[in-house]
Amino acid sequence: MNILKRKSVTLIAALVTALIFLVFATVFTISSTTHAQDAGGMQNAHLITIHDRGNTKVILTKASTIGNAIMDAGIPIDKKDLVEPDINQKLIATHYQVNIYRARPVLVIDGNIRQKIITPYQTPLQIAASAGIVVYPEDITTIDQVDELTDGAGLKMTIKRATPLEFTLYGKTSTVRTQANTVRGMLSEKGIKMTKDDRVSPDISTTITPELAVKVWREGKQTITAEEPVDFEIQKIQDADQTVGYLNITTPGVKGLRNATYEIIVADGQEVSRKEIASLVTKQPVKQIEIVGAKPTFGGDFGAALAKLRACESGGNYANKNNPTYRGAYQYSYSTWANKYGIYDPANATPAQQDQAARETYVRRGWQPWPNCGAGLPDIYR
């Protein structure tokens, strides 16, 4: 009887053990399947950490952009809010840190001007830019919390403007701005140390005002270097198929730059002499190439006569400047040309202007004014 009881107990224990094993096996299979499905479903997901006004939220999302990820997190965004990175940025990496800067009212005080703006920006320069205000490096800006709402704003930015003035330092004039109250303070603020030969006007105790002009100079002989433009050369290419007066600039000229060093003498704040002692071209000018018409504007015998005259006098070159006295296609002297058309140098006049001047001169004088090249000109215009 005892043997039968022991066998029954052993059989029951074996059945219980088998049942427990079966339950655990089933649970493990279901759990493994669920985890596999979850892992497969979140493949290529992005871990996004969102910081919003001191709150942090972490999500795992398959969104394609920062903006869509924020929507997945259930966080509303106003069009005036600022999100970094930008809400349109594509999600490529596995991890992102996202900051949301909420737009809020800011009172901007700029002298007597007060305006309230809605902005998400944090720095004074950004706030000023969103308000359409230019802030200079010498201006002082402060941002403060307002204990009580002022004009509906809990934050204010105050701009303390620097005073602009005209400042000439060793011959170079520019507009500078300063927070100093006197000329002495302005010079100190700008780091200008006077030597025994330096002079300043007005007196260093003078109060700074917007209309003030301050000048610092050095008495006696000294050298200065100034950046100056270098004119470009003009090359004219004649086209016999185009009538005189035609102009086509194929390569526009560009002025160069040079550093010119001068020895100057200053007495009582006035430059009394200047001599160039060195020059360094820092940027070469670009030559201007022009196609100009060379086909005569006058036809018939007279047109042929002018062409013959041009060929004899200058080789037909309207821009001829080889002779310091006689210039252009017809080799006019400065006195004969007499600043015609408001142009001092005949060689700078257009081909049409030079042709017309030659015709007028020939008709007016009634004789051949070019003794070397005038033989054979027609008499019909005398």
What this model shows, in words?
This protein has helices at 2-41, 66-72, 124-130, 183-189, 300-314, 334-337, 351-365; strands at residues 46-52, 55-61, 82-84, 95-101, 104-110, 113-119, 140-150, 153-160, 163-169, 172-178, 198-201, 213-218, 220-230, 234-243, 247-251, 256-267, 270-283, 288-295, 326-327, 332-333. It is flat, with a radius of gyration of 44 Å. The strands form 6 sheets. It has a 4-stranded mixed sheet with strand order 2-1-4-3, with helices on one face. 14% of the residues are buried. Residues 1-5 and 27-40 have low confidence and may be disordered. Strand 16 (256-267) and strand 17 form a beta hairpin. It folds into 5 domains: 46-101, Roll (Ubiquitin-like (UB roll)); 104-160, no CATH class; 163-218, Roll (Ubiquitin-like (UB roll)); 226-288, Single Sheet (Resuscitation-promoting factor rpfb fold); 296-365, Lysozyme (Orthogonal Bundle). Helices cover 25% and strands 38% of the residues. The protein contains 7 helices and 20 strands. The longest helix is centred in the N-terminal third of the chain and has 40 residues, at 2-41. It is α+β, with helices and mostly antiparallel strands and 382 residues long.
Write the layout of secondary structure elements.
Layout: H1 2-41, E1 46-52, E2 55-61, H2 66-72, E3 82-84, E4 95-101, E5 104-110, E6 113-119, H3 124-130, E7 140-150, E8 153-160, E9 163-169, E10 172-178, H4 183-189, E11 198-201, E12 213-218, E13 220-230, E14 234-243, E15 247-251, E16 256-267, E17 270-283, E18 288-295, H5 300-314, E19 326-327, E20 332-333, H6 334-337, H7 351-365
Parallel strand pairs: 1-4, 5-8, 9-12, 14-18
Antiparallel strand pairs: 1-2, 3-4, 5-6, 7-8, 9-10, 11-12, 13-16, 15-18, 16-17, 19-20
